[in-house]
Every structure is written in C-alpha cells, then in structure tokens.
UniProtKB/TrEMBL annotation:
Entry coiled-coil feature ranges: none
Highest taxon of source: Bacteria
Protein name as annotated: Metal-dependent carboxypeptidase
Protein EC: 3.4.17.19
Family membership: Belongs to the peptidase M32 family.
Function: Broad specificity carboxypetidase that releases amino acids sequentially from the C-terminus, including neutral, aromatic, polar and basic residues.
An annotated Gene Ontology molecular function: carboxypeptidase activity
Keywords, sorted A to Z: Carboxypeptidase, Hydrolase, Metal-binding, Metalloprotease, Protease
Catalysed reaction equations from the record: Release of a C-terminal amino acid with broad specificity, except for -Pro
Length: 489
C-alpha cells in the first residue's frame, strides 16, 4: 500500500474511535445514571488520550510527508488530516486528557446548578474549564489570537473580527425590526396543555416528513436537544413541555436538519476526514433552513396545523392562517433555543461578545452573571429573572465549546443565501410543502450541500450552492419580507 492508502486506513480507525467517544456523550445526555458522572469523566479522558495519541502520532506526519493525493478528493482528505494532525501536535496530550475529564464532570455540575438556580455552584468548575481552554487556545494560536484559534475547531478559516463585522452589519437592522414588530399587534399564542406522549408521536412524524432515516437513527429526550453521530448512526434528541408543543416540534425539525446532513454525506466518505459536515456554520445552515424557512413557512405550517388538530383535537387556534402567525409569534423571552427568527441572532451576539471577553481576560468569571444580565437588559429591554433563564441556560461553556456560539448566527446567514437560491430553483416548492412533502427542498439541499461532507471548505460550499459569497443581505431581506407581511409593517 502507498503512504496515502496507509494514512486513510489509519484515519478510518481513528474516526471509528471518535464515533465511540461521541456515543459516550450521547449516553451521558440521555440515559446515563446520574451517579456515573465521575466514572464517565474518566472514561472520556481515557478515550480522548487514545484519540490524541493517534492524531498526533509521528507516523501520521511521515505519511503526510510522503503521501501523494490521486485526485481532488484525495487532496481534501490530506487537507483535513493535516489540519487535525497539526492541531493535535500543538496541544499536549496531558492537557487534552484533562480537558476531556474536567468538561465531562462540568456538564453534570452545570445541570445541577441550572436546576438549583445556583450560579455560584457552577463558577468554580467554569473557571477551571476556561483556564484549560485558554491554555489550549494559546497552544493552538502560537502567538496569535486565542479566540481565533478556538474558532478553527468550528468554522475553519473564520476570525473573530470577520464575525464581528457581520454581526455589526446585522445588529441595527435586527433591533429596528424587533422594535417595529413588538410595537404592533400581538400575535396569538397557544394555551392549554398538550399530552407529552402525543407530542413525541407527532415529533416522530415530523422527523420522517423531513427525511430523517429512522433505520439509521433514533429520537430521544434530553434537557438540551442535540444531534450526535455520522453516517449510519445519527441520533437526535428533543424535549417536551406540556404547555409548549412548538418547543418539541421545532427542536425536532432543527435537529433533523443536522442529522439529515450527516446521513446524506457520500457513503464513500464514511469514517474518514470528509465523512461529516464541513463546519458548524454550514451544519447550522441546514438545521435553521429546515426549522425556519421550511418548517415555519406559511405552506408547511398549514400542513402542521392539520396534524396538530388530528393529534390534539381543537386547541384554540381557529384556522391555518392564525396558526402560521402563532408559530412565528415575536415576543419577549429569555431562552435562545425558543427565540423567534427576528430576535435569535441577538441572543447569539450577546454570547459571542461575552465569550470573547472571557477568553481575552477582559471579563472575569465572577462577573459573568452581572455582565450577562446587563447586556440582556440593554439588548432586550427587560431583566433576567433567574439564572436558568440567563447565564446558566446553555450547556456549551460547561463542555468547553468556546467559539461554537457564533456559528449559530453564521448558519442563519448561510441559510439565507441557500434559501434564496433554492426558491429560485424550485418555484413550485410551496405547493409541495402544503402537502407536508419536503422532498424537493431536502433533495436540493442534499444534492447541493449535504452530500459533499468535508470535501469543500465551508465558504466554498455556500458559494457553490447559492452562487454568491456568504453575506447577511439575503437573510435580512427574508426577515423583512416575512415579518413585514405578518405584522403589517
């Protein structure tokens, strides 16, 4: 075998072990007994030690030096393996193991602190996580910007300054739209209770309606919905609330967007460096376009209204048009994952600015809650009422995912570009969606984005699919048109 073949065979085993590590994380968030947290931390540290050793092994460097790519796909394999190899060799193995152990334990401490509304109980372990991630970031940056180095794990090629420029262009227009909408008529809201077992039944129907292959996946419940895995084992979770079925349904559709991306990657790339989504921004573009441009559109909500009437009977919404308004209701709220399309990105901008400040040292951990609450009041016009609605609401920082948050808003930007191109290519799409048939849309996304996995860099994926460089204009135009019509602006 050639050096290239040897390298790919080795990478195949490394990717398989990484999937096992991911399964441990899935188990931790779904069915693991609470008393197993410390042991699970040791297990995660052990497998991370093996993965780090494989990724940084000298023989990988030897193979990379000798390997000759047979074609453009082979060159992409080498690009991604080299990126992982160089990263692994910048981070000491002992540090990688310590991060895996501490973040595994921190996740449980965050959950307990969130349940108890006790920020003080979480801050010591958060301080430890931040110190470790700063150390990791400094090693990766090699004298450069620590936060930029962290971003490369989620959106390779992007910098904090570039993201800040996009957000600065979006923020005033979003604030203006938010004020105009909230100054108008109030949209209707659901009332009453909705059986949670029936919510899960309809969530399964929604997952399948959006093309999720249940023979290669499963739907479970978790505190924080997520998608896990790739290839032939891609699992999703959702959550239920007796008074808010939209939380369940749109969390499910969102996670199906992630999962459908992973299930659609070219099978030839399975368990390879190209066998998963290229970046979290592109990943989020899929979940957001499934959830919002498709799932919250007028056509599909008409079908969902009929499904809800069939499942729950008369639930107080008179017709499909009123239901569409209720689905897209803009209202004050604390929770990022429950935010409407107008305000969602403002939640992300808050987190982006705070985590950059934490990493740079401009914001101290003990001042985080106050900084969050001050910024929230400034951006949204009302005060945080309790920590679970404030700085304890998200799991990300507890598990060390600094640099992840901005990819949510980047995903919305990318989705705006993709939606514009998809609507041009599929002028009759709404007729299909009104029947609950998403196959034309999901097929277009599979053909133009999902099948490529990591073959192309993220910006190239969006540009190839949409015919334009990623930019915020299509998203802002879409939001203005949709909510201007809904709220008669």
């Amino acid at each position: 075998m050639s050096a290239f073949d040897d390298l790919l065979a080795y990478q195949h085993e490394t990717a398989a072990l990484a999937q096992i590590a991911g399964r441990l994380s899935w188990d931790q968030e779904t069915v693991m007994p609470r008393g197993a947290a410390v042991q699970r931390g040791m297990e995660m540290a052990a497998i991370e030690s093996v993965l780090h050793a494989r990724r940084s092994a000298p023989q990988v460097g030897d193979w990379l030096a000798a390997a000759v790519a047979p074609d453009a796909t082979g060159a992409a394999h080498l690009r991604e393996i080299r990126r992982a190899y160089e990263r692994a060799n910048k981070v000491p193995g002992a540090l990688a193991r310590q991060i895996a152990r501490v973040t595994s334990e921190a996740q449980g401490k965050w959950a307990a602190a969130r349940a108890g509304e006790n920020v003080a109980a979480f801050l010591p372990v958060l301080s430890e996580v931040i110190a470790l991630k700063r150390e990791e970031g400094a090693a990766l940056a090699a004298g450069g910007d620590v936060y930029d180095a962290m971003l490369q794990d989620f959106e390779p090629g992007m910098t904090g300054a570039e993201i800040a420029a996009i957000f600065d262009a979006m923020r005033p227009k979003l604030v203006e739209l938010r004020a105009a909408v909230l100054g108008g008529a109030a949209a209707p809201a659901l009332s009453g209770t909705f059986d949670e077992a029936r919510q899960m039944e309809l969530a399964h129907r929604l997952a399948q309606a959006f093309g999720y292959d249940m023979t290669r996946g499963r739907l479970d419940k978790a505190v924080h919905p997520f998608s896990s895995g790739s290839g032939s084992d891609v699992r999703i979770t959702t959550r239920t609330s007796a008074t808010d079925p939209f939380n369940c349904f749109y969390s499910t559709i969102h996670e199906v967007g992630h999962a459908a991306y992973e299930q659609a990657v070219n099978p030839a790339f399975a368990l390879s460096a190209l066998g998963q989504g290229v970046s979290m921004g592109v990943h989020e573009s899929q979940s957001r376009i499934y959830e919002n441009q498709l799932g919250r559109g007028r056509a599909f909500t008409g079908w969902l209204y009929a499904q809800m009437r069939e499942t729950f009977g008369d639930f107080g919404i008179a017709d499909a048009d009123t239901f569409y308004w209720a689905v897209n209701r803009v209202h004050d709220g604390f929770i990022r994952t429950e935010a409407d399309e107008v305000q969602y990105n403002l939640h992300i901008m808050l987190r982006f600015d705070l985590e950059r400040a934490l990493m740079s040292g401009d914001l101290q951990v003990q001042d985080l809650e106050a900084a969050w609450n001050d910024r929230f009041a400034s951006d949204f016009g009302f005060a945080v009422d309790r920590p679970s609605n404030g700085c304890l609401q998200d799991v990300h920082w507890s598990v060390g995912l600094f640099g992840y948050f901005p990819t949510y808003a980047l995903g919305n930007v990318y989705a705006g570009c993709l939606n514009q191109a998809m609507r041009t290519a599929l002028p009759d799409l709404d007729g299909d969606l009104a029947r609950g048939d998403t196959s034309a849309a999901t097929g277009w996304l599979r053909e133009n984005v999902q099948q490529f996995g990591g073959l192309y860099e993220s910006r190239e994926v969006i540009q190839r699919a949409s015919g334009m460089a990623p930019n915020e204009a299509p998203l802002l135009q879409y939001l203005d048109a949709k909510f201007g019509q809904l709220y008669d602006l």
